[in-house]
Amino acid sequence: MLLGGIRYLLPVIEAAHKQGYYVITADNIPDNIAHRYSDEYVNVSIVDKEAVLKVAREKKIDGIMSFGVDPGVVSASYVQNQMGLPSFGPFESVEILQNKDRFRAFLAQNGFNVPKAKGYGKAEEALSDADIWEYPVIVKPTDAAGSKGVTRVDKSEELEDAVLYAFDKSISGHIIIEDFIEKAGCSSDTDSMSVDGKLAFVSFCSQRFDAAATNPYTPAAYSWPSTFTKEQEEYLTSEIQRLITLLGMKTVVYNIETRIGTNGKPYIMELTPRGGGNRLCEMLRYATGVDMITAITRAMVGDPILEPIEQKPYNGHWAEIVLHADKEGSFDHLVISKDLPAQVVEKDLWVKTGDRVELFKGANNAIGSLVLRFDEQNSLETALGDIPAWLRVAVE
Questions:
Q1: Cα atoms found within 13 Å of the Cα of residue 372, Cβ hemisphere only
Q2: Per-residue pLDDT tens for 218-259?
Q3: Taking a C-beta distance cutoff of 8 angstroms, is the pair 226, 183 a contact?
Q4: Which helix (H) or strand (E) holds 287?
Q5: What is 2-85's CATH number?
Q6: What is the b/e burial string over 269-299, where b = at least 16 CB atoms within 10 angstroms of the residue's CB?
Q7: pTM of the full predicted structure?
Q8: What's the rounded Cα separation, in Å, for the pair 12 and 236?
Q9: pLDDT digits (tens, 9 = 90+) for 67-78
Q10: Model pLDDT, residue 143
Q11: Domain ranges in the chain?
Q12: Looking at the domain covering 116-179, what would its CATH class be?
């Protein structure tokens, strides 16, 4: 059973079918694209863990996960543990990882580098603390993904709008305020995998943003390798392993956000037990040949992983561009300059001429992706430093 129905589940469904598995997709949005490709669809709220458990028992499933779908991770873990299925790890650990304020508290209690942070269940409580912060701060829901509800606040006068916006996007009605960690170089947001609790494959990328977008904190591009030094990557790898060991995690694909602060400290910003959105596992399969999608699909039904998950180097310099519009209207066409010094490995466009497109407020406003391979890093940096010079989304 796969919780959710977004397009990022399509490669998981494909991998499952190649293994001969019967796939049930589940959420409360019947028109979601993944349901067209699964063998069966069940209409159930993926944040209602008891309802998901009831359906899972009725269907006598062999495994469940919420790949790329953040709201379903807690329910998937609950069902795994209640039914004795292959699991990410203890349910309590998954709850910690999926709740931003509990996660920050756990990091602090165990000696990890962590920004000052505090969670709130009411807007009045958050606003009454306006004077305890040294601005800038980040305000965000504790349980939303895709950069929904996230705002940087540079002065106390801006706090109220940000708090109300975060509460509006929170599923559970909880938000977190934390110090904004100014980053040195690019932050990283990419996928990694542990097998039986041991970090078998770890990756770091350069996460890039569109400063002109409506939400400038929604990732607009990714590239591999990262801007981190070898020493910084080694330190973060050690800390990630320490974290998953403390939590008792098992065989899991993680989406992990890390950054190096201008203070020189490396930080684990988020670690969630799911594949990331934006096709990150697919990108890593292109860049390294490591197939975490097939591996985790087999592991979640209790089958052995046939191709070992192991650290492999990048076979070139890779980038993914998250296609999006800079104005609302009707999509017309996509323009890619012939001068782009890269191989366009894949162009995945999700809209056709005449379709309505929205401003880039969150990951759900993306209209497709480009997979690019560069021969050397300088060409990649030049191209990603000025994307409008070679890429245009024409909107009428």
A1: 27
A2: 899 999 999 999 999 999 999 999 999 999 999 999 999 999
A3: no
A4: helix 280-288
A5: 3.40.50.20
A6: bbbbbbbbbbbbbbbbbbbbebbbbbbbbbb
A7: 0.91
A8: 28
A9: 999 999 999 999
A10: 79
A11: 2-85, 116-179, 188-395
A12: alpha beta
